Amino acid sequence: MLVTRHNAAGKAVKRDMTSKVRGGHVYSEDAFERPAVEVVLVGLCLGSDALEIAVSPTAEQPHLPYRLPWAEVTSTRPMSVSVSQLVEDAGTTGTVAKQLRAINRQETISISYAVPLVTPAQPTVPVIDAIPNLSAHDRQVADMAIDFARRSLWDSTFALGLLPERFTLLDAQRVHEAVLGEGLKKDTFRRKMLASGLVEPTGAREEDVDHRPAELFRTADHPTRPDPVE
User: Are residues 42 and 134 in the same domain?
Assistant: First the structure.
């Protein structure tokens, strides 16, 4: 790569910056191998009574039957394309994918994302069953995604992305209970959710139900960070 520099006399001088001599050694941008880059996706969804995770069955290691969906990033397949394809293959999502962090795995840089799935298109397994059957790296990534979902329950609409566009407050409570792994008091949750700024009424109610139709809500267009609600 030629770069123009000016010397002390102000004269323009072109220098080849591809390789330099430093301390008697020649440096070149090709002197070191570039690490491989991969994208790993954690697709979370709501099972019958627990949080589930999308997996790809694998036979590479018999004692580890699952791995998280992943894609390699290359010069012809940039990261944005890899993430978009993984998300598209995962199913119907409730919000955009959230980048978690990058992990240096010796010769590979692994960049992880999490996304809530309304309708998964891949096999899903309850988290409690999936985690022990993943590699150490995939377990770490899955734990980060679950931890993010828990920490952001009252700060963002990420977890509510597990629900269809319109939902009841009981549906929202079911999501929180699945993410937290514990039951919640109905009245307390209802008050907190209504005061959170994360949901807004649609003006409609459930239809074709054999009980009193519940009010339907949707995620707020511009949710605000809620004040603490006791």
Answer: yes
